[in-house]
What we know:
single chain, 5 strands, three-stranded mixed beta sheet
Amino acid sequence: xKTYPVCIGGNFKVLPNxxxxxxxxxxxxxxxxxxxxxxELEDAITAAQGVEKELANLPSYKREEILKGIAxxxxxxxxxxxxxxAQEAAKPLKxxxxxxxxxxxxxxxxxxECKRLPSEYLKxxxx
Length: 127
C-alpha cells in the first residue's frame, strides 16, 4: 500500500502521522496519506508567503504555461485519477471521468483567462 506525502514549499515529505483511505464498497485500505499537524501547516503558510510577491509579479504568459502544464499533467493521468476517485468516493467510473475532465477544463479556461486584459470578469457558470 502506498503512503502519500505532503508537499510543503515544493518539498514532499512522508510524515509519521497518517490516515487510511478506505474503499467505501468493501472497506479495503487503498492508500495511506500523511497527516499534517500545526507545525506543517505553519511551514506551508510561511513557504506560501515567501513566494507571494514572486507569483504576484509572474507574467501572464508564464501563468498560462503553468496552468496548461497542470491541465496536461491531469490529462496524462486521466485514467489513473478517475479510477482512484471511483475507488475513494464510490463514484461510478463514468462520473469519476467527468470530474477529472471538469478539472482539466477548469485549468484550461484559467490558462486562457491569463491572456485577457485585467479587470475583465468571466462568469464561471458556463463551464
